[in-house]
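PROTOCOL LOG
Step 1. Enter all chains and additional molecules of the complex.
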Amino acid sequence: MLTASIRHIFNYASFGSRNFHLSVVLPAEPLKKKKRVDPQVELERIRKKTRRIEKEIKRLEQRGRYLKPLDEIEGERHFIKTLDSRERKLPAPSETEVEQRALLMKEWTRFKWRQLDTECQLLANQRRELYRAMQHLRMLDPSLFELATQPDESLLGLSLSGPLYTLPQSAEVFDAVDGDYRDVTPTYRYTFEVDKKMTFGKKK
Amino acid sequence: AALWRSGSAATPGLTRSGRLLSVGLLIQRKAVLTPDLTELETRASDLFTRLDFERSRLSDFELRDRAESEAAKRSLSAAAEGKVQVARDGAVITAKDLMQRWAAEQQAVTLASREAADPSLKRPAVLLSTDADLCLPCCPVVDGDASLRAACDRLLELMGLTASCRLLGNAPVGLHTYKYKKSPVSLFLHRAIFTGADWRSAEASGSWKWVDADSLPGRVPDRRLLKKLRLLAAEF
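Step 2. Run joint prediction.
Step 3. Record the structure below.
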């Protein structure tokens, strides 16, 4: 009897292609049960987020734009990408030209070293002369010496311009245009527009 | 007190340890025009310009010019082969047109001639007296002067150059000692710089004249003072 029942199972139930099959492999876990979200809570959450963003924008606008540290500046990507196409195709200088350039650089280096040496000696002599004058003043009148050692506040803000390459033209030759100066330097103001759907009226 | 120029009759002033104290002004005018380059400087400048150019990359404008030139060549060769009809659109401004326009604008600008300008403008100068026996503007320190700087301010006021000169510092930059009628004098030299718009205004009174470093030997009789002035008035 037991054998008959087992045989029945094997014949009709277990391994038949109709009755025993495998379902499709499931790549993900079954979906979780959907939670009910309170719309007011959701709105409040979005409102808080936008408020935080607007506050941050206002704070940044008040402080002004910070300049990036020089170490962090990577250069413009547009130029870096087109670096290869921007190479100048110039003929290589000849050996004579290279030699002449090297000799000129040596001569220039010697000239600048002599100039530096002269200027250093000049500075040292001027410093010595100043020291001598101050020592003499201290010997003659210590009170005048004390006053002479005080810093000169009027030197702050001193600005000098020149020299020019040529003298300015006379009015007959070039008459400068009179008029108001209008500064057209472009300035960029960053504005952040919040989607109106995300903003709702304040809670009463 | 009247303006007392070095070497002239002394007016009563402050004495310390038997020496008469006085202040002198070394009023300097910077070079108005850039000095001419020497032959070596010209060659070096040309070399550095050439090296800068060789090491540089093409700018956006040069890229545009190159692209337009190549496009023009292609369209002309295509037109020569009868493939494309080339119609020159006058409204399109190419890089070459812009360069021609800039060159024309540059031609219209005429600069004043450097050769016609006074060569002394290319060198710094010092303000000295026009009187043959006198040179630097100076005056004795009197009881009313709180400091040497105050005496210098008073001297500038006497000369009428308070608005166009700036004293540099409270301390003297040099000292010149000499004897006047057997009385020892200590002349403290202070540096001032001419900041006025027109450097010729200082010579308007006729008492003063701008003298450059090369002409100093002819104007300053005292050799020790001349050596000091050459040292202090030297430009870097």
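Step 4. Note key features.
Chain B touches chain A through 53 residues (CB under 8 Å).
Confidence is low (pLDDT under 50) at residues 6-10 of chain B.
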